[in-house]
Amino acid sequence: MTGRLGGEFCLVCGADPPLFGDRMCETCMRARTTLAKVPENVPWVRCARCGIVEIDGKWEHTTDNEVWDELLHRNLVVHERAEAIELGMESKTVSDRHTLLYIQIEGVIDNLLFQEEHTMRARMANGVCLTCTRRAGNYFEATVQLRSSARRLTEDEFTRLRKTLDDVLEKLSDDPMFFITSEGVVTGGYDVVLGSKGLARAWGRHLISEYGGMVIETNSTVGRKDGVDVTRLTLLYRKPGYEIGDVIAWRGHTWRPSSWTKDGAIMERVDRRERTGATWRDLEQAKVLAQMHELVRVDFITEDASVGEFLDPSNWKMESVRLPYDHETGRKGLLVRKDDAWLALPQFAIDLPESSEES
Ligand SMILES: [Zn+2]
Ligand SMILES: [Zn+2]
Prior knowledge:
4 domains; six-stranded mixed sheet; five-stranded mixed sheet; 24 strands; elongated; disordered C terminus; binds zinc ion
């Protein structure tokens, strides 16, 4: 009792030190201090069609746990002097729309450790996101036409081309307009109708970098809205139907592409030593006579300066063929069937590994 004279004491109850905060004993300090406050109910919005969630006015793909974390951080108010805060949360689904969030929080205020538990009810409301609104209206800005040049592509090849759009979508940001309005097989190709011109162009660039070829863009005006022309983009992509080593009819002769260039291919003429660079546009009129895997390798049984004889592997009859300009005695022949006759091909570096493997 003597110590109290002139000493410090709790301003609320008069108790002896130790005192905390604004000169209160621990009991009074705890009775008058709250570490954290949360609202009882917090609303959030999910798109009823696609399930994405609105967070701070932006629609995002997110998991439930991310939604709860977001709601907690948006709504939790912590005492201004609190330090060393630790948070824990558990969720319990009450109904389709209601989830209870149990929050455990601890923190230090004026050297006193506070531990509290709170409950917050997350209430989901249905909405419709921008993408779904546009989709429901069959909104579109661009059509990408997948076609080929020089050879009809197989269904598998079109499927592979179409799949690259999924890769592009995955890499791009969550733009709400990056969606597919409709798609399907058409004569000679495959069409994909898209919500965004930017997406169509990004895909076009991706196709060119993966498969070569070129894109032709056509813009058409379909009307006016708010004083601005509304335009639609058609993007025609032709995948070159040939690969290095294929045999191609082009400009009245037979050629083989031997390597790619930035905007086309190096073409090697088959009937004489001649090489030329060709752009994709130059090659639009090319036709594939045979793909590389269709070429036939034979051993010559007899050969003179210009003609070699061999057994036709399809019927084992003796046939003869004019030897290519680069023929070396004893080398296997690389043949293609053209206009019901055999044609022997000059050979490139890419023809060699396979032939050395075989011999
Ligand atoms: Zn007190
Ligand atoms: Zn949606």
